[in-house]
TrEMBL record:
SUPFAM superfamilies: Formate/glycerate dehydrogenase catalytic domain-like, NAD(P)-binding Rossmann-fold domains. InterPro entries: D-isomer_2-hydroxyacid_DH, D-isomer_2_OHA_DH_cat_dom, D-isomer_DH_CS, D-isomer_DH_NAD-bd, NAD(P)-bd_dom_sf. CDD domains: GDH. This is Glyoxylate reductase. Residues 105-281 form the D-isomer specific 2-hydroxyacid dehydrogenase NAD-binding domain. GO terms for molecular function: glyoxylate reductase (NADPH) activity; hydroxypyruvate reductase [NAD(P)H] activity; NAD binding. It comes from Halopseudomonas yangmingensis. GO terms for cellular component: cytosol. Residues 45-312 form the D-isomer specific 2-hydroxyacid dehydrogenase catalytic domain.
Amino acid sequence: MKPIHPLIGLPRALPGGFMQGLQSFGEVWVAEPGQVPPASLRIWVSSALDPVNAELIDSLPASLRLIANIGVGYDNIDLQAAHKRGIAVSNTPVVTEDTADLAWALLLSACRRLSASERFLREGRWAEGDSPPLGQRVHGRTLGIVGLGSIGQAVARRASGFGMRLMYHAPRRKPALEQALGISYCSTLEQLLERSDILSLHCPLNQHTRHLLNAERLALMKPGSVLINTGRGALIDEQALVDALRHGRPAAAGLDVFEHEPQLTAGLAALANVTLLPHIGSATGECRQDMALRLLANIRHFLANGAPLDRVSLPPAGEPA
């Protein structure tokens, strides 16, 4: 079979390892502002920071057959527009354990006020005889998980070592996982909010889950509760969260993702009861290598078989959170 040397398009240059891997397949074209994509473009590579909306998809040439996304999430891509054009979409679902690790780091930091205590120490206040802020215990508490996919399950497994009670809410009940993980099901999100001491978000972002936690739902959380988000920032109405954190309900939060990345909603960074991280759920050397290899594997499989390994399908119409 004659080898295929496709033209691969990028909205911006990627780190060296990604670029070298892509160049092993063919020529790599990096877009400049206002530049028209070449007519022979076959593959478009994007990441979570690169919106691939209907307008961009319409501007891509008829030769394009694959949008290869770097990351497990694909809310940056208009799947309907891609499907209409007959363009396959792939992702790199290899971030589960690293993201679950980070969710637990945020959980411990938010509960034990680690960020505030570190600032306290760096400011020299311990030496002056002050006491650092009190946190709250983690072991024995009730952990609520929104979305019991691979990352939600990994977070639940880690909770077993802390003797926590586990609850979840998802569009469909998962009895086999309930037994395996020792986790109970809440039929509504409102039930989960009212019963959880700590709430961790692990559901995808779509039209049904945008602002899943709005002002009304945040008000249902327990006094003293803690909110963790390593999913997508727009799952939460961030302005409503700023207001809620100011009033102590929830009492604390740990966030790795934000509604308007890379910008933060006004007032969020000034809060002492929130731990903020710059979207580093997959930011380990090992995970980034796995993502690069999975991206290349998807492209290789697409060129050899006409379909990527990790093809993203259109979600069922009308599926709730």
